[in-house]
Amino acid sequence: VEDTVLLEWDEESKEEKKIKILTNPTPGLDVRTKGSDLTKDTLIMRAGTKLSPADVGILASVGITRVSVVQKPKVAVLSTGNEVMDPFS
Predict the structure, then answer these.
(1) CA dist 82 to 16, 78, 79, 86, Å?
(2) Are 55 and 49 spatial neighbours (Cβ–Cβ below 8 Å)?
């Protein structure tokens, strides 16, 4: 917002349509290096964590681009005779 001039805006929605930036960008400004927001030996996440989009972002922020994953096991129960009994008998 600093170093800008509002040139055009939408009366109805009050949204900015056009601005003029008064300064040149500084290369590298506000760019963090990977892992710069964590200390050494910080546990990022535990094994077995179900990854959310936020978790993927955290991993990317420390330079991790590949992780080992396991598929949830699939279980089936097959009844072939009288081994299944009524629990109320």
Answers:
(1) 73, 12, 8, 10
(2) yes
What are the tens digits of pLDDT across the range 23-81? 998 898 888 887 788 888 889 899 889 999 999 998 988 888 999 888 888 888 777 77
Instruction: Show me where the domains of the chain are located.
Output: 4-61
CA distance 86 to 76: 19
pTM over cut 0.70: no
Q: Which helix (H) or strand (E) holds 18?
A: strand 16-21
Residue 16: beta bridge partners? 9
Task: For residue 70, count CB atoms less than 10 angstroms from its CB and return exposed for 0-12, middle for 13-18, buried for 19 or more.
Answer: exposed
**Amino acid sitting at position 79:** S
If DSSP states are collapsed to H, E and C, what string results for 32-58? CCCCCCCCCCCCCCCCCCCCCHHHHHH
